Amino acid sequence: MAFMTTQWLVTAVLLFGLLLFSVRSDLRERKIFNKVTVSFAVVGLFLNTVYDVPGGFLTGLTGLAVGLFVFMIPYLMHGMGAGDLKLMAAVGALTNWRFVLYVAL
Fold this sequence. Notes:
The protein has 105 residues and is mainly alpha-helical. The protein has helices at 6-29, 34-51, 56-70, 72-76, 82-94, 97-104. Helices cover 79% and strands 0% of the residues.
């Protein structure tokens, strides 16, 4: 399979881990912890920087910002919590802004 690069595989495994930790803590304690979302966001920014040297950091940062701003509206309308907002920012940092928009739709 040509599309399965190392970057894709690492990102998929990390994204699955992030979502698994978040779902587990949200179901058990009704909270998504900052240490999980912030850690994965930092790792996502780092990996984007390593895998795409000229513009990777900007890709991760743009994904993080789009994750924050797109899901800010439901947060401000009390449709989701702050943990969910930070989770989508971490997803954006791990992936990119296109993926976050796709998830939002």
